[in-house]
From TrEMBL, chains A, B:
Gene from which the chain derives: recU
Native source species: Lentilactobacillus parabuchneri
Record GO terms (molecular function): crossover junction DNA endonuclease activity; magnesium ion binding; nucleic acid binding
A Pfam family matched in the record: RecU
Name the UniProt record assigns to this protein: Holliday junction resolvase RecU
Annotated site residues (Transition state stabilizer) in this chain: 102
Length: 199, 199
């Protein structure tokens, strides 16, 4: 699929690596979801002893299970539950890392409805415990990915609750967030952005 | 259900609290599993702004889902997957907390087969990132609960892999671990044990 910038120009992924030999660039991330991209990056961080960060399993409400003889238990009826926390957490340089990843088709802002109230409350609680909390936001239109600190997200969330706007302007994310440029390895080097705001 | 010590004496739960008025002691934890007890304790820690620690959802492999009109998606076929990490993690005083909870019916030792290789590897990785890792072990026979540091667990695990014993003697757990005495709130004050070995 050809990806185009809003102005119609075709988008080419530019790994922010010094290695620019075309024959060694891995374009296998084409068509990946943000979740895939982060999982791949986390695998790299794990393999290289840099950080231990995992996506939590999807919460499921199990209603009925079959226990057939001689084979694995089979779940016959279950439903998806709303997550009460964020999707990703782990440890990096002794620090607790906690974040959620969201994609948006919007070109000019990030709609706050992408978050549930529970998730924002969870971030607030983690911040109180000195955790490193943030959101990774991807604008699908031009494949730009930003890290936005939870404190900034919460500011907008709270304004929304008292009648403020229901989205964060992209300009604010560009100014206050951290652009995560795609690389070969890790694909999304978001811990580099984390380095820039932890002491 | 009446719980008895190995010598036949009946077991009464003794909350390690200064409050010994019988009419205010909460015996509602009778018959709870260790998981229930820890979840209840985590709720207390969360509500009181002491720590943010959650059990991860059970990992499920989804095979088939129905999307009926006008109602929630229904999972029709799914299977339990082996966890690749521990069950609990979170943040406490800025530190990353990671642990697993296991019950054993054995009276004299804790069988290492209660852990999967993946979980032990995960603990090793978290330790490398300066995470606080441990196991909470409950001897069902007399309702004793201990916190055992991951480093101690890993010592025995590695010995087992080179032909050593397949369990940790209870005496070692009593000596090197930390007894967690039941209280009213939190029911299992395991973070008090954590306090004693983090600086």
């Amino acid at each position: 699929m050809t990806i185009r910038y809003p102005n119609g120009n075709q988008f080419y992924e530019q790994p922010a690596s010094s290695n620019t030999h075309n024959d060694s660039i891995d374009f296998s991330n084409r068509g990946m979801t943000l979740e895939d991209e982060i999982n791949k990056s986390n695998q790299y961080y794990l393999k290289n002893g840099i950080a231990v960060i995992h996506k939590k399993p999807t919460p499921i409400q199990i209603v009925s299970v079959d226990y057939p003889k001689r084979s694995a238990a089979r779940i016959k009826e279950a439903y998806f539950r709303k997550a009460s926390t964020t999707d990703y957490n782990g440890v990096y340089k002794g620090k607790y890392i906690d974040f959620d990843a969201k994609e948006t088709k919007s070109k000019t802002s990030f709609p706050l409805k992408n978050f549930h109230k529970h998730q924002v409350e969870h971030m607030r609680q983690c911040l109180k415990q000195q955790g490193i909390c943030f959101a990774i936001i991807k604008f699908i239109s031009d494949q730009s990915v930003y890290l936005l600190k939870a404190t900034d997200l919460i500011d907008y969330w709270d304004q929304q609750e008292t009648g403020g706007r229901k989205s964060i302007p992209r300009k604010v994310i560009e100014k206050d967030g951290f652009l995560i440029a795609y690389r070969i390895n890790p694909l999304l080097p978001y811990l580099t952005a984390v380095d820039s705001f932890i002491e």
